[in-house]
């Protein structure tokens, strides 16, 4: 965990995934220095669920909606509480403005995609994890395998070789999965791509969409859960 924070490779996808894992939350609960940091554990849980709402292959779309709305209520409740209390500073006691904007756009986009897919493509499974820049990142990850540092001209020259590498990876998907699993346990392992992984995927589950009435109930449940977390942290959700 320390190596994922101090001197971390900014392109190490697995370091970010480990930070929001249940193991990291459990570790923060038993580590004496972090045992009383309930805000940290709540943040890792809620924001980790926001990311999982897109990346998870097996949960229902109803569960995704609830996770996303809980993240929305948690972030907005935290931010509004700080704004309502002048002795707190939004730049000190809240996440950065850029991260807040990114999370807000991400949550709204995922919710909108689910609704749009339900209304226009109800008989097609919605694979939310494919709605991302991961394929593009995979391309650059393969580039780093060929040459760690490169100029734009060198990158253009590498494109034929990169196309071959990516094609071979898809053909040898089973072998690549084993290799990725080995890399996932290593620190500073660079890009980690899971867009082609379909373990546990059930197309029928991903074709079931909640009705507007169901969504209203999910939003209510998400609000109550976010309110409980914020109350535990000594704040109020208005």
Describe this structure in words.
This protein has 238 residues and is mainly alpha-helical. 62% of the residues lie in helices and 0% in strands. The chain is built from nine helices and no strands. Helix 2 runs antiparallel to helix 3, helix 6 crosses helix 7 and helix 7 crosses helix 8. The chain is globular and about 55 Å long. About 5% of the residues have low confidence.
Topology:
Layout (H helix, E strand, L loop, with lengths): L12 H7 L2 H9 L7 H18 L5 H24 L12 H24 L13 H13 L5 H20 L1 H12 L27 H21 L6
Q: Would you summarize the structure shown here?
A:
This protein has 238 residues and is mostly helical. It has helices at residues 13-19, 22-30, 38-55, 61-84, 97-120, 134-146, 152-171, 173-184, 212-232.
Describe the sheet with the most strands.
none
Strand content: under 5%
Write down the Rg: 20 Å
Can you give the mean pLDDT? 84
Structural class, by secondary structure, is mainly alpha
Helix content: 55-70%
Could you tell me how far the N terminus lies from the C terminus, measured between alpha carbons in angstroms?
Answer: 35 Å
- How many β strands by DSSP? 0
How many separate helices? 9
Order of helical and strand elements: HHHHHHHHH
The global form is globular
Flag low-confidence runs: 174-180, 187-191
Provide keyphrases for this structure:
mainly alpha, 238 residues, 9 helices
């Amino acid at each position: 965990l320390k190596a994922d924070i101090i001197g971390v490779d900014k392109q190490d996808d697995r370091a970010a995934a480990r930070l929001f894992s249940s193991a990291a939350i459990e570790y923060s609960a038993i580590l004496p220095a972090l045992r009383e940091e309930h805000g940290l554990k709540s943040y890792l849980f809620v924001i980790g669920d926001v990311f999982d709402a897109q990346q998870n292959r097996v949960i229902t779309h109803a569960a995704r909606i609830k996770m996303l709305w809980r993240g929305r209520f948690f972030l907005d409740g935290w931010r509004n509480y700080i704004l309502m209390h002048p002795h707190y500073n939004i730049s000190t006691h809240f996440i950065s403005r850029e991260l807040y904007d990114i999370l807000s756009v991400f949550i709204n986009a995922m919710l909108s995609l689910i609704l749009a897919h339900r209304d226009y493509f109800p008989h097609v499974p919605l694979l939310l994890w494919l709605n991302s820049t991961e394929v593009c990142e995979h391309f650059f990850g393969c580039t780093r395998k060929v040459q760690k540092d490169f100029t734009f001209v060198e990158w253009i020259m590498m494109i034929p070789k990169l196309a071959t590498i990516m094609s071979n990876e898809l053909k040898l998907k089973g072998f690549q999965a084993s290799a990725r699993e080995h890399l996932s346990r290593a620190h500073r392992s660079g890009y980690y791509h899971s867009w082609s992984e379909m373990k546990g995927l059930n197309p029928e589950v991903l074709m079931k969409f909640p009705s507007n009435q169901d969504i209203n109930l999910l939003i209510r449940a998400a609000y109550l859960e976010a309110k409980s977390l914020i109350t535990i942290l000594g704040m109020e959700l208005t």
